[in-house]
UniProtKB/TrEMBL annotation, chain B:
It comes from Bradyrhizobium quebecense. Belongs to the binding-protein-dependent transport system permease family. One of its GO terms (cellular component) is plasma membrane. It is a multi-pass membrane protein. It is found in: Cell membrane. Its main location: membrane. The lineage of its organism: Bacteria, Pseudomonadati, Pseudomonadota, Alphaproteobacteria, Hyphomicrobiales. This is Carbohydrate ABC transporter permease. SUPFAM superfamilies: MetI-like.
Amino acid sequence: MAITLSASDAPSPPLSARLTPPQVWGIALLVPYLLVFLAFVVYPVGYGLWLARHPSSYVALYNDPIFARAAVNTLIFLVIGINIKMLIALFLSGFFAQQRPWIRWLSVIFILPWAVPSIPTILSVRFMLNPEWGVVNQLIFKFTGDDGPNWLNDPAVALAMAIGVHIWKSLPFWTLILLTGRLAIPHDLYEASDVDGANWWQKFRYITWPSMQTLYITCTLLSMIWTLGDFNSVYLLTGGGPADLTHVLSTLGIRYLRLDQLSLAMASIVCAMPFVLPLVYYMMKRLSR
Amino acid sequence: MKLPTLREVGTEAKLLLIGIPVFIWTMIPIYHMFVFAISPKEDAFTGKLWPTHPTLHNFSIVFHQQHYFLRDFWIQFWNSAVIALAVGALTLFVATAAAFSISRLRVPGGRAVMNLALFTYFIPAAFLAVPMYRTMGTYGLLNNHWSLILAMVTIAAPYAIWVLKQASDKLPVELDEAATMDGATTLQLFRLVYVPLMMPSLVAVGTYAILLAWNEYLYAFLLLSKDTDITLPVALGNFLAADDSPWELLMTTGFIYALPPAAVYYAFKRYMVGGLTAGAVKS
């Protein structure tokens, strides 16, 4: 103890002499990322926060009915949409865990929505739902003789469709992750429970769920953070319409940006931070271990 | 041959009852796009499940750029490809260097950098897009491919660093020690020991970055605007601007655009699944 204290009291040699060559290399190799981080994360975020410093931006935001609507839509998207998605993913992970050749083939096809870019497939759905020419209403007309509804013109239906598109796109990814978790459960647990005569619910309740709940909750939170940034599902399907009633926070920020109201755009993002930062903090704690 | 029991048939039926809707749900938007792509113009809007006269004519129109909306198709395809490859290469460079430094050289402050990167990973990309757009304007990079390349590297690098760090933490320390004993310099250690051993993860990360950049819509649409500068997804989005946009051509172009990433994904699936889900499952 005494030695280290006296050592630190002595005038320290110049920095370069204290570093070993590997450490010099280590710092040099970190520089590219640090430059990217400073130029394209620190500076933009700092500048954005500086733009959003005026309380008047928040007053303007508060008085904009589109913002309130977008906040509610975002909550619906996250709380209802993501939970439905994760429950289906949990269910399907059990389905894909079955050892059958045809199920293995189906899992290869099932991953397609994740493997293909979202733009063409979302536009494909948009055309299907077109009131006059879309295949959905064509089929409704063929079978019932009635005109189908104008799907994307009703804000509730349009938002539900956007959630559906989001689920279509990201369900395979989460199913795959949960499947990996499920396959990691030792098989003899299930064999033992078979001997004891457990039914499928008891097996799920007492074997599957306890081993998967941490993973499931982590996945749900992660999916919520990412879905906040899901611009494509809403923008390309509804464009925020009809009458700007289906915006979510991510499309609203871009809308303000396009209207050259940058301080409003940043203020709307800052408003989401009390919700985002705890989730980010929790995820960082989990992943940096 | 043993006949299946009633119970086995029942289980199989229940599985099919799940499998068939899953198949239909997955295929509908993709199949719809495909049918449009092979339908002649007058057939496309009749709501048929299979066109009466399937044709490849739409593909020929796209490849020969014979439509107002498609006059820059090849240059936009080229833009998409160049940008995706540049993002893949730059991300690999930045992330491998950082992961080697943090995990193998244990540079002081490495953990803090890792946390900063993770923080970036969790900022929703659409939120970062707003200030990023203005910053690119300040740097004078708007309407320049570098703006999109650098923005995508910023988004791809954090996850890449994290995956590579996880993978390199698993390599035994003795390797580095043995190499250093034999007189290897740090660079030789990196080039001759680290990179060869990390190859599977490097393939996974490179593929991840390339696919991310090829598929990106929001940043491409904000940062690039000239018809000869934009990437394919932005061009697809621009189709929507017109009321009389030719759907069958849009769907054909979309189909062509979706093929390369799907092919890459399936070709590298082995690496993607192993390398990229490992972290998420760790609990």
